[in-house]
Fold:
Amino acid sequence: MIDIIWFLLLSIVLFSVGLLGVITQTNGIRILISIEFMLNAANVNFIAFNSYYGLVDFTGWSMALFIIAIAAAEAAIGLAIFISVYRSFGDITLGNIFSLGEASEAE
Amino acid sequence: MAVSLTLFFITLGVMLIFPIIMRFFENVFLKMILYVIFSGGLVVMLGIDAAIIAPLMLLTVYFASMAVADPRVMRAAIYLLMAMVLLGFIYIFLNSEILMALHISVYGGGIAILILFAAVLIEENTTIIDEQTMRTGYLITVILAFTMGILTFRGRPEALTTTTIASLDDGFALVNDFSVFLWTTYNHVIPFLAMLILGALIGAVRLALTDKEVINELGVETEEVSS
Structure:
């Protein structure tokens, strides 16, 4: 018999770790890793609340499933962008990348 | 709730102090006896479910912290893999075996390996983070964590106190019910998700095959062009 507060605490800690990574890190891959932790913190909450409500409805589990799918898509696209940028410039430090938009007419 | 929380923090303290105590003992048999006593004490104090999940949660948090803090991206990806697998096991305690399987397949087998490959392909430039950014980051994180903690404790419904792990038969029934729920209530979302993932896959392949010149034409600007 486990109290729901254990899972909520885990969720808070995971979200905080992810947030700290997003704020302080500059490497693109590391920021992606941190975002994954933040998404997983949300997942833990969804699944915990759904399970503790007696499983008469599976909305929380369904949301967790959708988040997992979206996280997979986001990771695939994000890593492809970083690898493309790295192939051209040899660096994926986000502080050094100013623009991913179209080239201006002046150029 | 107060008793459960007290036990949680006592367990946390004991688990942090225990490895330090073990350093003082040289004898292997004595160490083994101490480990057995420690494990037995945890089970008696917390119950079998909590005694298993407490170390799992602590290890998950440890690996997550290391994934963010480790200076090498390669190691960070391995720590991510470990944290995701352990988090998947935690879902068993929420009677969600199907999501555990999905979580470990997608995160452990998909995303973590993808990041691991990216870390291999990219030669990392070690970036020194300035102290101002670190201080701001820690400050924002602590404030937000504190706020979330207060909201969690104040807004927690009292009715939701405990749950137990379902038996295997109940677990299969739950998976069946979940599948029926997904394909009835959310049947219009599943094809959309499939299209989303397919789009991401095609986009990722297209980006990976893009020539260097095309990327240059897109106007990506960087401060230091090292290649």
About this structure: The longest strand of chain A covers residues 97-99.
